[in-house]
Amino acid sequence: MSNNAASFIAKSTIKAADLDHRRKINFNIGKYNAVVPKGKEQFTDVLTARERAKNTKWRAIEHLDQYLEHFEKEITARGAKVLWAENAEQALDEIGKICKEKNCKTLVKSKSMVTEEIHLNKYLEKNGIESVETDLGEYIQQLDGEAPYHIVTPAMHKSKEDVAKLFANKLGVPGGLSPEELTQIARIKLREKYVEAEVGVTGANFIIADIGGIAVTENEGNARLSCAFPKTHIVVVGIEKMLPSINDLGLFWPLLSTFGTGQKVTVYNTIITGPRQANENDGPEEMYVILLDNGRTNLLDNPLTREALYCIRCGACLNACPVYKNIGGHAYDTTYSGPIGSVITPHLSGMKEYKHLSYASSLCGNCTQVCPVRINLHELLLENRHESVVEGDSALGERLAWKIWKTASLSRKMYNMSNGKLKNWFVNKVAGAWTTHRSDLDFSEKTFNEMWVERNKNN
Fold it and tell me: How far is CA 88 from CA 93, 114, 432, in A?
């Protein structure tokens, strides 16, 4: 068992028994579940809309090389600089060079899972640069020294009382403040940073090939401020976020908002196509776009797992997953948690180290049911399991157990010899991992074959 697997089992065991934690996340997820059906009403035929979106992402991923090159050509024509990063180290190195060139002391950053993936804040801190999260949820998590808990709602596991206590401890404000008062305090603190920052960093919800632009979706406006106030704007985005055309946003923006938060469309939707032009008064003087691979081509290389690159990071599968709702986001010890995280992380970070995530599933299929782009998530979890076995990542005890089971199953005589008591003893006592978190199995004393023979022996 890898250290990552051992950590996951330990953390998930604790969180599964923490009823207060479960109450908080189910309360917050319940709010989303109540409004998502209302958001879906904007679609005449939501299934057709989802199928169209899946087909669009299929086209984008199948021709990704061509679309990326066209995107680079279009956006560089307007003065932006495109940098290609094969891994997190290359991306961080490029960001470090830019910050050094701009003599950056303070950097503002909007909500971005891909910058969490490369651990940008830790890198900047080591290099003496203050990195400030400007999304309220991310700001709360940064104050608490925690990673995001959820793809869409970083502080989902915290109650308003938890946040009030955190602000009192970290910012020296009075305790017991209301959510409105807490938001105003964060607003005042962050507005100062926008003016101070030499560099602003954002992610991108979508890359648009035909116009050479990036599309950013948000509800607070912090991404707009992060890319408009500082003189230098850096975009860090995974190569899979590609859309062929600006016309696709009319479908993808409503799908993302509805399945993510239940809204018809989010409050701020921005398309950025380069730095400030000669005839413009606002915007950054320079813009850099870092296109990140970091294991995504591992998914692309496999025709079966390639479908996972269709993900638009709405978080719907997390809200639907019974495992996530019991153990929460931090138990996964990964940037991307829940079903989609369990699918992509073994390919991004190593199958041997993270294969256990693909087993942390009930395979109920609810994640597939709610995915706006109809990714067959539960089937991809099974594919990961298969791939880990083929690659030889399964434990010796596991391989021996399956070999014994296969041998017995192919022999009627051997199968009938292993009566219920023997099976119960082997599964519940010898293979004790099954009963660590489950009730004992109770096999029938006789096999179906034996009962059938007894019933029909006189016929």
Answer: 8, 10, 40
